[in-house]
Each structure stands twice: as C-alpha cells, then as structure tokens.
Amino acid sequence: MEINPLIFRAYDIRGIYGKDLDESVFQKIGFALGKKGKLFLVGHDIRKSGKPLALALIAGLLAKNSKVIFAGQGSFGQILFSGFRKKVDFTLFVTASHLSKEWNGLKIFRGDGEPIAPGRLKEKVMRVKKVNFPRPKVKKINLKKEYLNFLVQKFSILKKSNFKVVLDCGGASMSLVAPQLFRKLNFKVVELFCRPNPELSDRDPEPTPSATQRLRELVLRERADFGVAFDGDGDRGVIIDDQGRYLRGDELAIILAKSFLKKEKKKIIVKTVSCTLAVEEELKKLGAKIIEVPVGHTFVGKECKRRKALLGIEESSHLFYPSVYLFDDALLTPLFVAQVLFQEKKKLSQLVDTLPKYFFEEINFACPDEKKFEIVEKLKKKFQKIYQKVKLLDGIKIYFSDGWVLIRASNTSPKIKLYLEAKRKDNFQVLKDKFSQELIKCIQQ
User: Fold this and answer.
1) Which strand (E) or helix (H) includes residue 326?
2) Which of 29, 88, 210, 301 could cross-link with 39 by S-S, CB 3.0 to 4.6 Å?
3) Which DSSP letter does residue 8 get?
4) What is the spatial distance between Cα 92 and Cα 173, in angstroms, rounded to a whole number?
5) With contact defined as beta carbons under 8 Å apart, do 254 and 283 qualify?
6) Is-above-0.90 flag for pTM?
C-alpha cells in the first residue's frame, strides 16, 4: 500500500484500515520506530484490525533487532500500565480511540507513560523500502489481574462507600475491565453496553451528549450516584451526575482539583487552551498555578511530566493524574470522583451546582485534512488585524470582555473546531452566529 502522509497527525497516527493504512504500512512504522536492544511493549484495543496491525508492527520492530513484549488486547489503561510495570523503553498502543470501527492507528509512549508525538516519523517511514520482515515470535503477557489489583489497592477506601454507578462502555475496550473493577470495589454496578463488541455498533465511540442519552436516562431511573461513559480505547471517561447532567472534562476537573488542592503541596495545574474560564477563576483562588498548552493529550502529558503537575485537564475529558501515573487512564476519573464524594459526604450534583454557569459550545465543521490548516492560517492573519487580544498557541483564540472564541484544526479528524464561551447568553449567541458564518464561508470557498 502507498502510504498516505495524512495519517501522521500532531500526536498520533490514524487512518482508515484498508485505505490509508494496512499491515504493510505498520511493518514500516515498526521498522522506523525500532531501535536495537530497546524494549517495546505492544498492545491493541478491541477493533478487529487491531491484532493483525499489532503483529505487523512487531515484525517491523524485530527486523530492527528490538526486543518486544506483546500484551495483546486490552484497554488503554491496562496496556499502558503493562509497559509501566515492565519498565519498557516504549509502549505502543494500536487504536483509533473514539473514531468508528473502520479506523485504526497508533499511539506512542515512553515506558513511564509520557506521550510521544510522531514528529519526524513520517519521513523515516517514507524512506523504508524493501525489508525482510520476520514472522513475529515474542513473549506474550497479560497483566490484567495485576492492573486491577493495583487500582483496587490504590482506591481501597471506596469498598466502604456503597455507591451505585452506571457504566457505559460502548461495547469497546473498557468492557474488558471496568465492570470487573467496580465490582471488586463493592460498587453496585448497572451495566450499559458492557459486552465486548468489536463492531462498535452499540453507540458512537465518541461519548458526546447525544451518544450518552441512554446513559443519562438510566442514571436517573436507577437513582445512581453517577454514571460514566468511556470512549473507544478507554483514555477518556465522561461523567454524568446524579441529576443526569453531562459534565465536560474541564467542569469535572474543577471539582476534583478543589479537593486535591486542599491536601496536596503541588499546586501546578496544566490545562488546554479550549478549557473554560472557570478553571483559572476557581482554582487560582486556591493557590493554583495554571499552565496553558495546545489541545491534545501529548501536550498535556508532556507538560504534566515537565512541571510535576498535580492535574492535567483537557476539555474533552482527557484527564491526567500524575500522582498515580503519567498516562490518561479513564478508569481513574470515576474512581477519583467516587473518592471525592465519599470524603466530602455530598452528592455530585451539589458540587456541580457550586460551579459558575457560563455558556459554552464546541462546534465541528467538516473540512478536508489537506485544506483545514490552510484555512486556519488565513483566519489567523485576518483576525490578528481586527482584534486586539489574540493568542496563537493553538489555532487562534480571540478574547472579548465577556468571553472568548477559539478556531483550530482538529488533529485527529477532517474538521475545523470552533469553541465559544461567554458569561452572558446574548453575547454568546452573537459570537456563535458571527464566527460560524465566517467559518462556513471560508470552507465553501
């Protein structure tokens, strides 16, 4: 297969299986990544194409005389934990995260869980010509039991909580571990889409408000303490409160950070440029130092490691808890939520009601990959001349007296994203109408 250069994105590799990438492409990627004597751990999520791509990746690594451990199928957290526990040099996870079943890809990490962007990998892969790739013969491990025991021990206080939780695994990778873990911690577990389904047909692997409608209804009907919807590979968990309300990652993170800041000496919080104003407004009052980074788990994870941060926040519910490990295992989010509820002796809805109520929306505009970055660059030049206060950390963010607007190209999909926030509804609607029209016009040109 001819390699589509667009599969190499800002912080991972993604493409449609059979069209943009296949086993031959992954052999070359493995060969380009491989280093003689270095130890790699390779795993894959629940998709049907996961195992053949993982084995092809291993063949490429072995052709470069790398050492390889195969962790097989698992959730994001289980595979990253396996690399962490085995003290490997690099962990490679074959996944397309929240994208639909026809997609697949690769996430690259150091052994400690620090994410690595593909960087110059594209050029290295393009230079790989004919290589004799061996048939993979590697040691296979399964640390699922050790992984679950680690989390049970870490959150053993929750065995006394008697909480009721609704788990929506979307039939994806978290089906393999989440129900088992919460039962080990004595939760009353209500399952929704918790049977492994490689077709990912139960609901959209992206846990959006519309995709989690059944979960929200079930939380109310079961009178659960909260619900959680996991994405396709299990590095994001969206929380639903006891009143059935969908919580964005940055909203939930404020609640968690307030609890953490009371007890921890570390005060550094890393957040993406797309997070709500309320993160700074609420957490600076508690002594937090806020560090802003571009959108993307790679940027958050790297900065959390560099700054020795207390918490890493992405609005889309990638949350990092460096006190446990560096990677964004989605199982940690509901566990920390339960821990805070148990310690605070309050319902989640009561804590949510203390948050500022601003008007926020993220809007996706379909735009071809080869066109989206060019459009954003044109808008940068235009808006810099019009508006006084702008930031170019990731796309262009324009600040107003009542809120802000962010326009950036998606690093994972053929889309341009528009984020808006304002403290007043009328101002929010003005911003939404104005910048939506501007984007539509640019994309259609």
Assistant:
1) none
2) 88
3) B
4) 16
5) yes
6) yes
